[in-house]
């Protein structure tokens, strides 16, 4: 099974490999959630949801369900 | 007369766009609505050199030209419509020096529309702190534009920006990249079909989900036939376009921007490890709320007492200074007390808006969204529902408009429906006067009982909102996608100017909006209270004189009896008596009944109404509060406003839907009469039942 952003642990980083555009809102792509960019899990709420991420320098929060559609290579 | 230059300010959210707007226009700004929709339209005038003026529009913040909400749609509508009177001669794209990469996405799109554009790199004072250095001439060349490095905080760059706006004719309109490469065949076909149209404009029209208004749509209506690609295909193309743009931006910034991470400091992460912590985050949030409510209560008591006594003396003075007559009575007994009833709440409303705007300006509000999302989802809401619920403590109208950034329709609809439960500033006057009457002014470990009661009422409001959200979540069968994206901007010290402008503008809107209704209702009420049918009203003097003939009353006492006889048999008194049976089980008399009925138009009318009712026929210099304290319950004896009836009234106002403007806005935002009518009926019935139970248990 491939790793996704939902698998990241606090403080861990990864490189985005693919995003399935059906599940990911365009807005998130425009904010920098694109293949090749890095992603870091900054902070988690309880039950790790939502997730506070640093994607390519933009700090944002998304729900775990959305995060599970962003494929990454964990660094 | 020289022509005004039309300027549109465009930018991502959290780039300090509004600060730039405030710096350019100062107090020369006005806030209105775009015709037909409830999106706020901010515009202002800026004086440039040589007597030239610029008309500046502050457009809603957006991450791109792909609109996903009504607010964002405003930006595109304007930029696509050359015939609009506000169509910009020049677009000023505001970016944040720390997020240049992301901000440039929107900039490259605007360049593709061939509108002369200036790039403002805002918050330039933070460059050193963040280890950023920029090669401005290189960036200007690559992006085909002029750049202004601006810091509204340190107050520089604005004059340079004004100079660039004055010389907008020298700006290049050549796009900085070619987006049509993402699908050559498709775009070639498009170009052949519409040789006169701008290719990128066609592309935007094709890909937008939202309906266009009156844009010069007719001339490009035919593109509808060109929607040959499926939604999924179009989205894939939009993704390709976004990647393409980022490639260009990355190339440009590789040479134009150097970030030395070794000198960069990041306060945001350090703060967020505490402020968004699983435990400490919530504890801190709770204490911030507690402090706010304590402050609203404590800080505003002095100016409020002052306003209260000033209006009482003004009313007294009017009576003595003007010749006696109907007009003087109307002024002294109807209009002045009615206005006093609204002016007195300016201090509290201003403090409330002050705190809300500070929370937003600092960036803390986004953290609250993050903290609350998981919990709110349990109630069928989104973390973003917290912003409307908190803004609802100021006014439900902007709060309901603030639901527009909630991505899921179901979560948004539930938020709209439950927001009116939160304690808006119009309830504050009612709460404050009743609390001061029935809750003792004592302290417990430094916290006043009165302030704690107020906080409790706010919590009840939130509780009712959440509880009903949970029920709605179960009942409503709406399927919708649940996206949730929220940006966590850098923490910033709030700019005094921005906060002050927000407070002034919002307070003004509240006072004038509510003031009009209150003035009208005060006048109507005064007439209804001053005239009545039949002998019982018109021969009040004779009746009273006969009744008390052998009791040796002083002239003053007789006058009082005459006044109350008159009020009781006036049109207003008759109406009040008619509804009294329905509200007596709640602990209210007919006077409160009148206030209840009139406050279905707007809650804050309650206090003004009581002021009018109680001051009719009185010429003592007495404040509303003292008169209310002196009222006696006609059936049970004892003070009318005691603990039981007071709590019952507080709870009635906590739950009842008494605001016509809110109903109107719900109708507009949901585009249906069903929801506002349900809101009105269910909330008011619930309020009645709860108030009934409260009085019957406590009496």
TrEMBL record, chain A:
<dbReference type="Pfam" id="PF04023">
    <property type="entry name" value="FeoA"/>
</dbReference>
<dbReference type="GO" id="GO:0046914">
    <property type="term" value="F:transition metal ion binding"/>
</dbReference>
<feature type="domain" description="Ferrous iron transporter FeoA-like">
    <location>
        <begin position="3"/>
        <end position="74"/>
    </location>
</feature>
<dbReference type="InterPro" id="IPR052713">
    <property type="entry name" value="FeoA"/>
</dbReference>
<keyword id="KW-0408">Iron</keyword>
<dbReference type="InterPro" id="IPR038157">
    <property type="entry name" value="FeoA_core_dom"/>
</dbReference>
<dbReference type="InterPro" id="IPR007167">
    <property type="entry name" value="Fe-transptr_FeoA-like"/>
</dbReference>
<protein>
    <submittedName>
        <fullName>Ferrous iron transport protein A</fullName>
    </submittedName>
</protein>
<dbReference type="InterPro" id="IPR008988">
    <property type="entry name" value="Transcriptional_repressor_C"/>
</dbReference>
UniProtKB/TrEMBL annotation, chain B:
<keyword id="KW-0547">Nucleotide-binding</keyword>
<keyword id="KW-1133">Transmembrane helix</keyword>
<feature type="transmembrane region" description="Helical">
    <location>
        <begin position="677"/>
        <end position="698"/>
    </location>
</feature>
<keyword id="KW-0479">Metal-binding</keyword>
<keyword id="KW-0460">Magnesium</keyword>
<dbReference type="Pfam" id="PF07664">
    <property type="entry name" value="FeoB_C"/>
</dbReference>
<feature type="binding site">
    <location>
        <begin position="58"/>
        <end position="61"/>
    </location>
    <ligand>
        <name>GTP</name>
    </ligand>
</feature>
<keyword id="KW-0410">Iron transport</keyword>
<feature type="domain" description="FeoB-type G">
    <location>
        <begin position="4"/>
        <end position="171"/>
    </location>
</feature>
<dbReference type="InterPro" id="IPR011642">
    <property type="entry name" value="Gate_dom"/>
</dbReference>
<feature type="transmembrane region" description="Helical">
    <location>
        <begin position="335"/>
        <end position="359"/>
    </location>
</feature>
<dbReference type="InterPro" id="IPR030389">
    <property type="entry name" value="G_FEOB_dom"/>
</dbReference>
<feature type="transmembrane region" description="Helical">
    <location>
        <begin position="592"/>
        <end position="616"/>
    </location>
</feature>
<dbReference type="InterPro" id="IPR050860">
    <property type="entry name" value="FeoB_GTPase"/>
</dbReference>
<keyword id="KW-0472">Membrane</keyword>
<keyword id="KW-0342">GTP-binding</keyword>
<feature type="binding site">
    <location>
        <begin position="11"/>
        <end position="18"/>
    </location>
    <ligand>
        <name>GTP</name>
    </ligand>
</feature>
<feature type="transmembrane region" description="Helical">
    <location>
        <begin position="451"/>
        <end position="472"/>
    </location>
</feature>
<dbReference type="GO" id="GO:0015093">
    <property type="term" value="F:ferrous iron transmembrane transporter activity"/>
</dbReference>
<dbReference type="Pfam" id="PF02421">
    <property type="entry name" value="FeoB_N"/>
</dbReference>
<comment type="similarity">
    <text>Belongs to the TRAFAC class TrmE-Era-EngA-EngB-Septin-like GTPase superfamily. FeoB GTPase (TC 9.A.8) family.</text>
</comment>
<dbReference type="InterPro" id="IPR003373">
    <property type="entry name" value="Fe2_transport_prot-B"/>
</dbReference>
């Amino acid at each position: 099974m491939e790793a996704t952003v939902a698998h990241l642990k606090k403080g861990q980083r990864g490189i985005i490999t693919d995003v399935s555009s059906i599940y990911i809102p365009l807005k998130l792509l425009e904010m920098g959630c694109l293949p090749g960019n890095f992603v870091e899990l900054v902070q988690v709420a309880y039950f790790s949801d939502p997730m506070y991420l640093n994607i390519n320098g933009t700090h944002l929060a998304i729900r775990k369900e959305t995060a599970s559609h962003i494929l990454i290579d964990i660094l | 007369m020289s022509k005004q230059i039309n300027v549109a300010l465009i930018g991502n959210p959290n780039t300090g766009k509004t600060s730039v707007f405030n710096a350019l226009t100062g107090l020369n700004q006005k806030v209105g609505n775009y015709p037909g929709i409830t999106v706020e339209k901010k515009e202002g005038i800026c004086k440039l050199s040589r007597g030239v003026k610029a008309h500046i529009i502050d457009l809603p913040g957006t991450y791109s030209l792909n609109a996903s909400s009504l607010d964002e749609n405003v930006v595109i509508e304007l930029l696509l419509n050359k015939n609009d009177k506000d169509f910009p001669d020049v677009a000023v794209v505001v970016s944040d020096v720390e997020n240049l990469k992301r901000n440039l996405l929107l900039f490259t799109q605007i360049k593709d529309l061939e509108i002369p554009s200036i790039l403002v790199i805002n918050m330039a004072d933070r460059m050193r702190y963040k280890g950023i250095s920029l090669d401005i001439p290189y960036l200007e060349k690559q992006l085909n534009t002029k750049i202004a490095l601006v810091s509204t905080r340190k107050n520089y760059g604005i004059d340079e920006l004004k100079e660039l706006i004055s010389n907008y004719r020298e700006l290049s309109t050549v796009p900085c990249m070619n987006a049509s490469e993402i699908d050559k065949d498709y775009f070639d076909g498009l170009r052949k079909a519409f040789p006169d149209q701008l290719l990128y404009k066609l592309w935007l029209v094709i890909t937008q989900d939202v309906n266009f208004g009156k844009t010069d749509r007719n001339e490009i209506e035919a593109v509808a036939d060109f929607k040959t690609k499926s939604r999924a295909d179009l989205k894939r193309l939009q993704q390709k376009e976004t990647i393409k743009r980022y490639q260009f931006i990355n190339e440009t910034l590789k040479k134009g921007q150097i970030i030395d991470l070794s000198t960069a400091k990041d306060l945001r992460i350090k703060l967020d490890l505490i402020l968004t912590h699983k435990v400490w985050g919530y504890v801190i949030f709770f204490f911030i709320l507690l402090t706010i409510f304590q402050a609203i209560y404590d800080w505003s008591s002095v100016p409020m007492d002052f306003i209260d006594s000033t209006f009482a003396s003004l009313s007294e003075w009017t009576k003595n200074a003007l010749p006696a007559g109907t007009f003087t009575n109307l002024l002294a007994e109807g209009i002045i007390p009615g206005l006093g009833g609204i002016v007195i709440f300016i201090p509290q409303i201003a403090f409330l808006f002050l705190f809300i705007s500070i929370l937003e300006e600092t960036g803390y509000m986004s953290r609250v969204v993050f903290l609350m999302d998981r919990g709110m989802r349990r109630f069928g809401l989104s973390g973003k529902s917290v912003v409307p619920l908190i803004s609802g403590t100021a006014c439900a109208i902007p709060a309901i408009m603030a639901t527009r950034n909630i991505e899921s329709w179901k979560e948004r609809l539930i938020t709209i429906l439950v927001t009116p439960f939160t304690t808006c500033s119009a309830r504050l006057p009612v709460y404050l006067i009743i609390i001061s009457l029935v809750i003792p002014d004592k302290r417990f470990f430094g916290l006043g009982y009165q302030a704690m009661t107020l906080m409790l009422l706010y919590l009840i409001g939130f509780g009712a909102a959440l509880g009903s959200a949970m029920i709605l979540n179960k009942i409503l069968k709406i399927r919708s996608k649940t996206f949730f994206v929220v940006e966590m901007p850098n923490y910033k010290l709030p700019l005094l100017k921005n906060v002050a402008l927000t407070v002034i503008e919002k307070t003004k809107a509240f006072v004038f909006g509510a003031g009009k209704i209150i003035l009208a209702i005060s006048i109507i009420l005064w007439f209804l209270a001053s005239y009545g049918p039949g002998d019982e009203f018109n021969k009040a003097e004779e009746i009273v004189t006969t009744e008390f003939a052998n009791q040796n009353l002083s002239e003053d006492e007789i006058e009082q009896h005459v006044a109350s006889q008159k009020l009781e048999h006036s049109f207003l008194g008759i109406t009040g008596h008619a509804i009294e049976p329905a509200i007596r089980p709640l602990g209210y008399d007919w006077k409160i009944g009148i206030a209840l009925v009139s406050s279905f138009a707007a809650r804050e009318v309650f206090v003004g109404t009581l002021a009018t009712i109680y001051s009719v026929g009185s010429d003592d210099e007495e404040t509303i509060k003292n008169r209310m304290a002196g009222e006696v319950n006609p059936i049970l004896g004892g003070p009318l406003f005691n603990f039981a009836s007071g709590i019952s009234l507080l709870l009635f106002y906590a739950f009842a839907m008494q605001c016509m403007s809110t109903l109107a806005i719900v109708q507009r935002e949901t585009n249906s009469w069903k929801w506002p009518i349900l809101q009105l009926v269910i909330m008011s019935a619930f309020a009645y039942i709860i108030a009934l139970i409260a009085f019957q248990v406590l009496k």
